[in-house]
Amino acid sequence: WEPLRIRRNQTLYVEESTSVIISRDILEIVHPNISPGDITYLVSTQPQHGYLEIQSITSDDEYNSKVFDQSTINSEKMFYIQAGVNQSLDYFTFDVTNGITWLRDLVMRIVIIPEHLYMRTNTIVVEEGKSVKLQPTDMIPYSEYYVGKILEYKILDHPLHGSIKSGKSSKVNRFTQKQL
């Protein structure tokens, strides 16, 4: 008997306070001899910053989203609804079965694209009369989504007791990630 096979288990990207379809392009478990309706997902850990929902025909039955099958995903009726504020990551864990074999402890990673860009910064300590080179680790976006996507920093408020320079040139009003 052939085991179930993970064809896709991609990271899901969702904008803050919105929803996204969990499609077969993101999550697909297959078996050559079993129909998608017989491949059952059992959610063991619910998302912490949102929830799963299955679109149903009747509005009064908001389907039990702890148990669903691959055909629900294939028909694009499975949703992740992002509901937590100021969060950048979420996940849920699940098992999959066809009634005979199991795939256990699978994880769906969810990256939340924040409405606003938040940065983690380090305190820069400079001895009087000296200079310090800024490092790429001195300014990092909180959201994994923005890592590697920032092209330029614009300086809105210059330091009161010093300046930001590029090399030995004059003060700069903007600089790139590559210049760090």
Automatic annotation (TrEMBL):
Transmembrane segments: none
Keyword Membrane: no
Matching Pfam families: Cadherin_3
Presence of keyword Repeat: yes
Keywords in alphabetical order: Glycoprotein, Repeat, Signal
Renumbered ranges of CSPG repeats: 3-97
GO BP: anatomical structure morphogenesis
PANTHER family tied to this protein: CHONDROITIN SULFATE PROTEOGLYCAN 4-LIKE ISOFORM X2 (PTHR45739:SF12), MATRIX PROTEIN, PUTATIVE-RELATED (PTHR45739)
Protein name: Chondroitin sulfate proteoglycan 4
Organism of derivation: Culex pipiens (House mosquito)
Lineage: Eukaryota, Metazoa, Ecdysozoa, Arthropoda, Hexapoda
